[in-house]
Write a structure and sequence with these properties.
Chain B: InterPro entries: F-box-like_dom_sf, F-box_dom, LRR_dom_sf, TPR-like_helical_dom_sf. The complex is a heterodimer of chains A (180) and B (727). By secondary structure, chain A is mainly alpha-helical. Chain A has nine helices and three strands; from the N terminus they run ββαααβαααααα. Chain A has a three-stranded mixed sheet. A 15-stranded parallel sheet of chain B has the order 1-2-3-4-5-6-8-10-12-13-14-15-16-17-18. In chain B, strands 7-9-11 form a three-stranded parallel sheet. The chains are: A mainly alpha (180), B alpha/beta (727).
Chain lengths: 180, 727
């Protein structure tokens, strides 16, 4: 099978979405696309524009396809492979991926998460989840708010009540006192 | 940002109403605005203002047209009220101000029609171009009062503020500087760019907050523009809240990768986070608590908030104080419960007894796994087991005392696949203090479907019974098992039913030969006299050998099996290359010459020569215990301090797919050298041993790391493979 075939994909979530022409081997990172290729006549798919509907911008999708194109030769997991989700914990970003994530803003990152979740592009999804997890892991409540730009809408009493309600479940561990 | 005006017209279109009269009036507004914009382009600002004002008053929210009263010309009350709100610490302050009348008492118009907003936007743009910056800001603030949830006003205001920031200078008197001074309420003169920049940041933050929090419809392009501005200005708020941004399955994924401490902190981030985490059914379905504190009266409330718990692990209940009431509450509130693991946390020798003989339990229709550690098997837990006998598939009773007999004697567990009974600590460091006798017969009767059986720390006796375990495939007999053959009417050496040909794994970890004989040669109907560990009886045992063609794991730490007997057990599985793990203790040297009379007196046991039937192509793990192949030429039985491990290395060479060795020769000098040879052996990747100490361990570790070998210090023997719920 020729690997230089390309597929056309268009985000129909908003009108006038850009039509992306993506190499087939890159687009196959998406389990959704692979399922489409299996279920439908290939010649049709190679001609028609495949509609996808994701609440994300064309620029974000462009990033997703940039990643897929760069990794087009990476082996793809089998469709019925449920995958061991525990593996995610140990993901080490390769230098290219590291750079890929370092120069995107969080809006794009979130868009990538939503898009890869929809398209089922597991490796990129797992990496994006990991980046979000790293924003939260090991941080105090106050730091989480600062990092993600969230304003607390709890009163001091409410926050203390939640702390009390859940404190018993956490190994009797002293949750560091955070003054805000 | 230049596109914002065009985007407004694009946005307005979908909201237009079908009413022809409305369409007509909207067309008029559009015409007036187009005229105004055209005039702006030709710098005819006063004419433009007139046209745009007409458009503003054409909105249907204002049927009286021009008749409505207007705010006085001096808008300073309006501006300072809004800017004050922007600078306040309350995130909702600007929204609140937008909903109340002006400080002077004037009621600003409120309207959600996009066209009205668009007209005001055109007005602000025109004023800005005409260098009436204060009025322009005032108009953009009026836009926020018009509809605080719309992003248009914030975009326009931010754009004006950005222009002022760029163009304000130290020279006083310019229109820009005058406006800045007014906006900053005379806080600084000459105007402070820092204060203005701070105001701009706060203004956009309020915009992002209000448009996100109070947004009614889908995002408009103005929301995106506002977001982009925030990014360009590197405003913290631009980092969006993931809990708002993500669909639930992505959030579940994120939260599932955090530990409980992180989750407890996340719970307090905001109401939204709290709600998202508490409602995440998947996150709470698997609740594993290490050593929780005492929740007291919070426990019922907590459980009612999470009615979908499927796995509940209580790793150490010593602080939690598991009472009958708490257990009852758990069982009553959790109909989905599948796996229950309770460890009282008491050291061995002390158990927690239930505080009540009442049993406020119900049947949990899905409960399949039950683990009880260091609890007295009195009425409370007896009831728990008996209520769920029909669903239980895995039962784990650790250090539950002699009542085990009574609990299991009278019940039937038709679906039980996996049973573990250990008296003593889970990780025994010393012998159990007491050794309850366990009658296996009634247990066999009660568990016809049993597949895996793990027993340790009890005295066993085989009460006469014809019951069998036809499905049993895995048997583990722990190191602290004792044999009590004299219980019951007929003394019997067999304590488990005959092994079927389904056996895949047999691990006998104790050193008592009678246990090994009693477990393996159960087909024997003739009862040899006790004690039996005598090679004289070998031919008789041969008759009673089980046929185990599917055997994958065979471990026997008891020096019970001479090559003849071992051959009966492992040869069928080794021949078909099924055998994967072989871990043996060598029979004491003195007994070997008698079973190998053909060998000369000087030769001793050599695995390559004596165990040729063990060669399984797929064998990957090989272990040998209590060996020393050194033969003193001068004295056959003389004590020796020499050590020879070479034959073990030769044996290792025989297995093409071997990667793991367990090397436990015992206390000899120069055992270290053997381990070093194993480390550099090309096939060996994992080593279990317990003889390296001090400097020798350090040296071996360095060597192992260099050769990519996992070197483990594993006391006594390799661990058993019995996957636990809490792992």
């Amino acid at each position: 099978m020729a690997t230089n075939q390309s597929l056309k994909l268009q985000n129909t979530f908003r009108p006038n979405g850009r039509v992306f022409e993506v190499e087939r081997s890159a687009a196959e990172h998406s389990a959704v696309v692979r399922m489409l290729l299996e279920d439908f006549d290939e010649p049709d798919l190679l001609v028609t524009i495949i509609p996808i509907s994701i609440d994300t911008s064309d620029d974000t999708l462009a990033k997703v396809f940039e990643w897929a194109t760069h990794h087009k030769n990476m082996p793809k997991p089998a469709l019925d492979d449920d995958g061991d989700r525990d593996e995610v914990v140990t993901i080490q970003l390769a230098s290219w991926d590291d750079e890929f994530f370092s120069d995107i803003d969080s809006e794009t990152l979130y868009g990538i998460l939503i898009a890869t979740n929809y398209l089922d592009i597991k490796p990129l999804y797992d990496m994006a989840v990991q980046v979000v997890v790293n924003m939260v892991r090991g941080k105090s409540t106050k730091q989480i708010r600062e990092i993600l730009g969230i304003t607390s809408d709890f009163t001091a009493e409410e926050e203390a009540a939640i702390r009390k309600e859940t404190a018993w479940a956490y190994d009797g561990e002293e949750v560091p006192n955070e003054t805000s | 940002m230049a596109a914002s005006g065009d985007a407004a017209s694009g946005d307005a279109a979908p909201d237009s109403q079908p009413n022809p009269a409305d369409e007509l009036s909207e067309a008029k507004v559009h015409a007036a605005l187009a005229e105004g914009r055209n005039l702006v382009r030709h710098r005819q600002y006063s004419k433009a203002l007139h046209a745009i004002m007409e458009a503003v008053y054409m909105c249907q929210c204002n049927p009286a047209g021009n008749g409505k009263t207007r705010h006085g010309k001096d808008k300073s009350c309006h501006i300072s009220q809004c800017i004050g709100a922007v600078n306040s610490k309350d995130a909702d302050a600007l929204y609140k101000v937008a909903k109340i009348p002006c400080a002077c008492g004037y009621s600003w118009p409120s309207c959600v029609r996009p066209l009205h907003m668009m007209a005001l936007d055109a007005l602000a743009e025109c004023l800005d171009k005409a260098e009436q910056h204060t009025s322009a800001i005032s108009t953009s603030l009026a836009m926020i009062r018009l509809d605080p949830a719309s992003a248009v006003g914030y975009c326009r205001g931010a754009k004006i503020l950005q222009y002022l920031l760029k163009n304000c200078s130290l020279a006083s008197g310019s229109p820009v500087n005058r406006s800045v001074v007014t906006i900053l309420r005379g806080d600084s003169n000459p105007p402070s760019a820092i204060l203005l920049r701070r105001l701009l940041d706060r203004f956009i933050e309020h915009g992002l907050h209000n448009t996100e929090f109070y947004r009614r419809g889908p995002k408009s392009s103005f929301d995106v523009v506002l977001q982009m501005m925030a990014y360009k200005l590197k405003i913290g708020v631009a980092r969006r809240d993931p809990v708002k941004a993500f669909p639930p399955e992505v959030l579940t994924m994120v939260f599932s990768l955090l530990n409980r401490t992180d989750i407890s902190r996340c719970l307090r981030v905001s109401q939204r986070w709290h709600g998202a985490i508490m409602q995440d059914a998947i996150l709470w379905a698997d609740l594993r608590l290490g050593r929780p504190g005492n929740p007291g009266r919070l426990f019922p409330k907590f459980l009612l908030g999470h009615p979908g718990i499927k796995t509940f692990v209580l790793g150490n209940a010593s602080a939690f104080q598991l009472t009958t009431a708490k257990l009852g509450c758990l069982l009553h509130t959790q109909p989905q419960l599948r796996q229950l693991y309770l460890d009282s946390g008491k050291p061995y020798g002390a158990r927690q007894s239930a505080d009540s003989t009442e049993s406020p339990y119900r049947l949990n229709p899905h409960l399949t796994h039950l683990t009880l550690i260091s609890f007295d098997m009195t009425a409370t837990f007896e009831k728990l087991v008996q209520l769920n006998v029909s669903t239980l598939e895995v039962l784990d009773l650790i250090n539950t005392g002699r009542q085990v007999n009574f609990v299991l004697r009278d019940c039937s567990l038709p679906n039980l696949r996996k049973l573990r009974i250990i008296e003593g600590h889970l990780h025994p460091s010393k012998e159990p203090l007491e050794m309850p006798l366990l009658e296996i017969g009634p247990i066999v009767n009660a568990t016809p479907s049993l597949e895996q059986f793990h027993l340790d720390g009890v005295g066993v006796a085989w009460a006469t019974s014809d019951s069998v375990w036809p499905s049993l495939s895995k048997l583990i007999l722990g190191p602290n098992l004792r044999f009590s053959p004299l219980i019951g009417a007929i003394p019997s050496p067999y304590f488990i039913p005959p092994l079927s040909s389904n056996m895949r794994s047999i691990e006998i970890l104790g050193s008592i030969p009678d246990i090994a004989f009693g477990a393996l040669f159960t087909k024997l109907r003739l009862k040899p006299p006790y004690p039996m560990s005598n090679s004289f009886w070998s031919p008789i045992f041969e008759q009673g050998s089980p046929y185990l063609p599917k055997l994958e794991v065979f471990r026997c730490m008891a020096p019970a099996l001479d090559p003849t007997l071992l051959r009966h057990i492992i040869e069928p599985a080794a021949k078909s290359d099924t055998l994967k793990v072989l871990d043996l203790a060598v029979v004491p040297r003195s007994t070997f010459p008698s079973v190998n009379p053909s060998n000369s007196a000087n030769s001793t046991f050599e695995p390559v020569r004596d165990l040729p039937f063990a060669l399984s192509e797929n064998l990957h793990t090989l272990g040998l215990h209590d060996f020393n192949f050194y033969v003193d030429p001068t004295s056959r039985f003389g004590a020796t301090s020499e050590f020879d491990g070479k034959p073990f290395l030769d044996w290792v060479d025989c297995f093409p797919n071997l990667h793991t060795v367990a090397c436990y020769p015992g206390q000899w000098q120069r055992v270290d050298a053997l381990i070093m040879q194993l480390i550099v052996h090309p096939k060996v990747k994992v080593i279990h041993q317990d003889c390296l100490k001090g400097v020798a361990w350090d040296e071996a570790s360095i060597l192992a790391e260099k050769h990519g070998v996992e070197l483990h210090h594993t006391p006594n023997h390799m661990p058993v493979n019995w996957p636990m719920l809490e792992e």
